[in-house]
């Protein structure tokens, strides 16, 4: 039995040296050679003269095709590597490649009455794959005799085996009841934004259970927002397999991205490095065009630049930064640290708990902000709660909220008081440790929380609850937080939840003040970030802990 691994621990050197990102030779060379001969003979219809893939395609494409079809055991029919993930920059012929691979699968497939499927998130994306596939057939008289093209239903039928290649748009066509054994999912990043994408993909790929020769291929560019949903899940898994953290020899990840060190050094700005995420540079991708476009983008706002870098240099967007963003967002990722709540409490001499939100359509955000004993730096840990109804009312962010839940930074609650009970428990723990200076909150709409805190002795009368100024009156806290992020004296837990919320903040200036608000009404939640500002309003006054009597006696003793 052939042994192999799909991990590619040396991918950083491979990608810089223009070597293959596939760390093994085809498992069954004869199968790979046969499929490659078919693939290479297909004509690329949108190029002058309609040359074949063999004439215009780079070696990385042939490596991928050989890995896919060369993983099929000719004796048993089993597909030993059955899942493939390709993440690559825009304009590297991804859709044409998808069409060629699936057309090859239709031609070389041995099963009769089989169904092959290209699943795209929209009709436009579906056409991007179907149109080249249909044109490849029409460009070759032999293929026109072998395959029947039906444009009105985006279907190509093998006249001998009666097998069918279908191209389906997920936004218009049903995927229920599909029996497809060989499937290609195009532009997974778009599906990642849909709350029902996971269920839809399970339905579409259900036929693989009874197709041992089947495979599933994901092709995608980077998202124009921080990765979410099924795209984030698959991208994280692919990186873990590639880096050897997960052993899965049936899953092959191929990710054209810059090593982190090169991103930190901004090496992606050097046109000499464009090839790293554009293996088709000089073919379907023009270096001169990229240079000109990047020059234009560098003069625009950060959000536009980030989208350009994501699409054409495959650089993942960490926060969706806008022109009217909070200035502290530029420094946010630099001050991320590993800060569990327990670490914040153990290292702090005093703590302020900021609270914001709480409506059924909002997140209930909490930030525990501590002042470190030794350095006097501020340490922030944040969490949020969301009622189940938010997932129904805000479907556009439902998949993203589920991601935060998986990370452990968000709790989905059903009972209307579950979030209040959890917050009271955290505040009570801080108070019992003798660390609590106060709970800082927007007084509006927090009656239930104030009543619940009173039961543990945390009341306005005791000085342990203070109203945080809101609107333009919060300007000092906003400015203080951004200055401390810039000088490195405010550290935070680095959660994706807070990165998202910070990126959603829009700053509205007047002649004399500023205020923080949402970039977009409804879906752009900022409550946990506002909880941080609430806490900063008190911490900036250099507070002392309001200890219970037993702590005062211990100190005096």
From TrEMBL:
<dbReference type="Pfam" id="PF03354">
    <property type="entry name" value="TerL_ATPase"/>
</dbReference>
<dbReference type="InterPro" id="IPR027417">
    <property type="entry name" value="P-loop_NTPase"/>
</dbReference>
<protein>
    <submittedName>
        <fullName>Terminase large subunit</fullName>
    </submittedName>
</protein>
<feature type="domain" description="Terminase large subunit-like ATPase">
    <location>
        <begin position="65"/>
        <end position="224"/>
    </location>
</feature>
<dbReference type="InterPro" id="IPR046461">
    <property type="entry name" value="TerL_ATPase"/>
</dbReference>
<feature type="domain" description="Terminase large subunit-like endonuclease">
    <location>
        <begin position="256"/>
        <end position="538"/>
    </location>
</feature>
<dbReference type="InterPro" id="IPR005021">
    <property type="entry name" value="Terminase_largesu-like"/>
</dbReference>
<dbReference type="InterPro" id="IPR046462">
    <property type="entry name" value="TerL_nuclease"/>
</dbReference>
<dbReference type="Pfam" id="PF20441">
    <property type="entry name" value="TerL_nuclease"/>
</dbReference>
